[in-house]
Write a structure and sequence with these properties.
The chain is mainly alpha-helical and 97 residues long. It has a domain at 49-96. The protein has 4 helices and no strands. The protein has helices spanning 2-17, 56-59, 63-74, 86-96. The longest helix is centred in the first third of the chain and has 16 residues, at 2-17. The protein is elongated. The N and C termini lie far apart (54 Å). The model has no long low-confidence stretch (mean pLDDT 79).
Length: 97
């Protein structure tokens, strides 16, 4: 009796998540990305994740200035607390992408 109820509940929940026998719909489907430029104070639309969410204007900055701007954005507007060597900046950039 209990097993039958449990089986029906499980079948109902599985069927609710599936559509025509396909996989369940992802919770992230239809989610809007924040497409604003990650440069502090910029309100332009970015070029997307492939270009580190920077607009065309800020993609022209040097690599170092881009890294500083991205770290500032990630820290919630606070500038980075310590300076990094170029090799550490490149490593951080590779990990961020």
């Amino acid at each position: 009796m209990i097993a039958e109820r449990a089986a029906t509940k499980i079948n109902e929940s599985v069927q609710r998540g599936m559509h025509d026998g396909a996989r369940a719909v992802s919770a992230l489907k239809g989610r809007k990305l924040d497409m604003r430029c990650h440069y502090p104070g910029c309100k332009n639309r970015s070029k997307g994740p492939r270009f580190r969410f920077m607009c065309e204007q800020h993609m022209k900055l040097s690599k170092r200035e881009q890294i500083v701007a991205l770290e500032t954005w990630r820290n919630g507007g606070r500038a980075r607390t310590r300076t990094r060597s170029i090799s550490r900046q490149r490593r951080a950039l590779r990990l961020a992408d």
